[in-house]
Amino acid sequence: MTDPIPSAGETTIIGLPAITVPVTSTGDRPLTKDDLDTITRLADGTALLISTRGAVAGSRYLLDEDEITVGRDPNADILLDDSTVSRAHAIFRRVNGAYSVFDAGSLNGTYVNRQRVEHTELKNGDEIILGKFHLVYFTNTAVVAR
After folding, report:
1. pTM for the complete prediction?
2. Rounded distance between C-alpha atoms, residue 57 and residue 50, angstroms
3. What's the farthest any 2 CA atoms get from each other in the chain?
């Protein structure tokens, strides 16, 4: 289950923009002001993955190509170096300006919001789990400036 991030109010986190998507409660790392600023500056047709758990928590991965590979292979566009990740684990594909994730025949599977998927179109706030890595997906429409 996800809980929405509270929007900036009179007494809470003044100056931060409101975020319109839930961030999973399983994430160990909350979003920072810098994360929110980066999300608002994303170009249309691009997206950002933010790692919320593990040794790379806080790492950000820009999705700005039509196809982006993820895996343990050093030639992967996004290298996730851990034995829980297959050499060719998943592929992010942009179709009509929206990204989908496709499992690339990985041993441990690709999960979106804790459901194993072969492929699915991504929405703001979706949590993608690849091995022990937890990544949250955002586009520039996730944050509403106030």
Report:
1. 0.79
2. 8
3. 49
pLDDT in tens, 80-114: 999 999 999 999 999 988 999 999 999 999 999 99
| Segment holding 2, helix H or strand E | strand 2-4
pLDDT tens digits, one per residue of 108-138: 999 999 999 999 999 999 999 999 999 999 9
Residue 94: count other Cβ atoms within 10 Å of its Cβ.
17
**Residues near 80 by beta carbon (within 8 Å), at least 6 away in sequence:** 56, 70, 71, 72, 89, 130, 131, 133
CB 52 within 8 A of CB 29: yes
DSSP, collapsed to helix, strand or coil, labels residue 76 as: coil
- For residues 65 and 69, give the distance between their C-alpha atoms in angstroms, rounded to a whole number: 10
Q: Which residues contact 95 (CB under 8 A, 6 or more apart)?
A: none
Rounded-to-integer distance, Cα 109 and Cα 115, Å: 10
Alpha-carbon span 52 to 55, nearest angstrom: 9
The pairing of strands 110-112 and 90-95 is unpaired
